[in-house]
Design goal:
CATH topology: Rieske Iron-sulfur Protein
CATH superfamily: Rieske [2Fe-2S] iron-sulphur domain
Distance between the termini: 26 Å
Strand content: over 45%
Structural class: mainly beta
Helix content: under 10%
Bound molecules: FE2/S2 (inorganic) cluster
Number of helices: 0
Strand order of the largest sheet: 1-10-9-4-3-2
Radius of gyration: 13 Å
Shape: globular
Order of helices and strands: EEEEEEEEEE
Oligomer: single chain
CATH architecture: 3-layer Sandwich
Number of domains: 1
Amino acid sequence: MAETAVPVCAVADLPPGGVKSFDIEGERIAIYNIEGTFYATEAYCTHAAADLGDGMLEGDVVECSLHFGAFHVPSGKAVQAPCFTDLKIFRTEVRDGRVFVDLSSTGAGAT
Ligand code: FES
């Protein structure tokens, strides 16, 4: 595991199909469980900063609760208006029943 990965939550806290946001080292990070695989993105929607932890996860796409824009979670790519700017994504790891996120692994969404 990367030394910079920090624990976020227990695997059991976030069942498949779930999304929740957490405050981690001064950042608001959304964690997603997509069929047992965990993903992390910046939590605030790039349109008008709604918290995607309040959004709806459908497959591998999260829909923002405020204006219903959407992002492809594994890549962070904006896929539905009014969202056009991709989310930052972070690497996750699971160890000992806990989800870790590496905030140093920041990257723009894949193109
Ligand atoms: Fe997310 Fe507008 S704040 S779509």
